[in-house]
Amino acid sequence: MRIELDPAQHDRNTFYRLLTASVVPRPIAWVSTTSADGVDNLAPHSFFTVACVSPPMVQFTSVGRKDSLRNVEATGEFVVNLAPEQLFEQINATGTDFPHRLSEFDAVGIAREPSTRVKPPRVAASPVALECRLHSTVLLGDSTVVFGEVVHAAVSDAVLVDGHPEVDRMRPLTRLGKDEWGTLGEVLEISRIRYADWPDAQKS
Ligand SMILES: Cc1cc2nc3c(=O)[nH]c(=O)nc-3n(C[C@H](O)[C@H](O)[C@H](O)COP(=O)(O)O)c2cc1C
Fold first, then answer.
1. Which of 201, 34, 36 minimizes the C-alpha distance to 114?
2. How far apart are CA 30 and CA 45, in angstroms?
3. With bands split at pLDDT 50, 70 and 90, how would you rate the model's confidence at 201?
4. Ligand 1 nearest-atom number relative to CA 97
5. Across the strands, what pairs with 128?
6. Which of 45, 89, 144, 151 is the most buried (most CB within 10 A)?
7. Ligand 1 atom 17: residue of nearest CA
8. Residue 179 burial (CB < 10 Å; 0-12/13-18/19+)?
9. Domain with 151 in it: what CATH number?
10. How much is the pLDDT for 203?
11. For residues 78 and 134, is the Cβ–Cβ distance under 8 A?
């Protein structure tokens, strides 16, 4: 038996909780931006994924209008810092609704490093930083999807194995429902099957 739910019959938060508990685990973009008057901002966003391969693009969603979105709109730049397990409490603390004039880097005590191609700084202890230029935004109801072209990537050599970021070394955190977070579980590996190799493929 299933419980059937019609979004039209439920309030916004009921469906928000259902979606965020169902679409799991979500990777976390730890987004750094700089305001027009020079304040460095940092906030986690778990509505985040790769948006395009060529040119390389990523996307995150601002639910409502927040400082990160305002800064991206004002400056056209942001950095997605990957969120490693060892920075769990700091990442959560940057989700606090600090006033616009305060920098989460300073309030939480997070070390910056300069970016190569954009003005917002990178998180020094994050294993991967994707420096982005704003491509476009799409307003969807109460949320805004931000698309950014990755103009530079900086990867810590401590997580590289044969030139590739190794997930066991990155230890990415994920966001689950409620106040739950996930850590990396067991990693499975399997090759995709080409149709030409599918059993009985020649007959159909
Ligand atoms: C793990 C985590 C994931 C989050 N994901 C999102 C998200 O995808 N979109 C969003 O608007 N807020 C998200 N939030 C809440 C924002 O981080 C929070 O509202 C923050 O204060 C926004 O900061 P800003 O105003 O400096 O941009 C998340 C918070 C946490 C802790």
1. 34
2. 6
3. confident
4. 21
5. 155
6. 45
7. 95
8. exposed
9. 2.30.110.10
10. 67
11. yes
